[in-house]
Here is the input.
Amino acid sequence: MEITVCYFGLLAETVQKEEEILVTHANTLGDLRKELLARYPPLKNSTFVMAQNNEIKSEGEALLQAEVALFPPFSGG
Amino acid sequence: MEARYDRQIRLDEVGLSGQKKLMAAKVLVVGAGGLGCPALQYLAAAGVGTLGIVDFDLVTLTNLHRQILFDQNDLGKNKAQVAKNKLEKLNSSIHIEAYDTAFNAENGFDLVAAYDLVVDASDNFETRYCINDCCVLLNKPMIYGALYKFQGQVAVFNYLGGPTYRCLFPTPPQAEEVPNCDTVGVLGVVPGVLGVMQATETLKIILSLEGVLSAKLLSYDLLKHHIQLLDFKPNKEAIAQLKKSKQIQQQSANQCAQDVEIGLSEITNNSNLIWVDVRELHETPQLSISNLRHLPPSKWETHGQQLEEASPKIFFCQSGQRGRKAAVYFRKKGISNCFALKVGAAALEAWINNTQHEKTT
Here is the structure.
């Protein structure tokens, strides 16, 4: 399916875009994470959580037909 | 009741009883920087009865565009102490305690125990995880704020059994993974907005108002004014495990950082030391000390061989973060005797001036 993926914080610089539409065969968020790491190897060094429908979800949860957002922790203060 | 609180007492949500709650409240603010300064100003103005301020760092000129409690006369002075003095002028009826120290696993527990809630206005992950663990163990809410360039995150952790920072981000990033404001830059208003949001959540909790950002992460992009409220769940197993262990979980990166860190008081003989300034060339203050080298991060890979000497090397930067990163980096490269200065260049400059003064008198 086609889904929009949004990258926040430093992740947007790591993948050099703030959002994109991807065609994926992933069934779960964990599958999608693996696909993204294969597509963007530098992401392997990044810590982030994934959200869909305004909820941060675990990797075992099913990938829905909705935007996925990737949030890294921020450090600055 | 003082007339100064009249306009907030008029609110049904505050009233006289709310004002009394504020005056009885004890809030610890960790970090008197970009987030901490605005948060402290509003908390003091609102009449929060006891404020604790933790910051080991000294005021530098590069702080003044965002750390709005400080002015040019404060350069080189301790931030917690200056903040206390300024806030006492704003509101002399509250009690303010300044802690001129870093918040860490040794003192964190005692600091948090003396307060009702903790505002996390720090600028690094070691401190954030340490605050989280102290708050979980002592059942105190933690009001989190952090930023990256124009984006911010705000959340309230450990509130009435709600999720914790570790429930949101279970794995601490590597020390070098996420840069802070000193490295990437920041527009002063961004921590200003976020620090005021943290103060807002703090007041809401004290006043028992609804809508506290518990179990929610607020993500705010100030360029686009794109705001998202993201729900997340508690990791009950992880919380129970932490509570059972009854101790702050040391991060491997944290432990490693503690081994490499060195304080100025530990330096007795600096004649054989090599000082390595890992800041960019334009950063100030520029220091005049013997055996000084400049090695900004862009040159670590190509010019690192300069360091292959037996003498102890002390890496420093503006706040200590890049210095720590450098010491860890060069240790991994097999270079021995690498240490990171616990404090920043401003504190080092003051120390150099003092030691030179001692020699001449």
Notes: Chain B has 14 helices and 13 strands. The first strand of chain B starts at residue 26 and ends at 30. Chain B touches chain A at residues 31, 33-36, 120-125, 128, 145-149, 151-153, 168-169, 171-174, 177-181, 184, 186, 191, 217, 219, 221, 228-233 (CB under 8 Å).
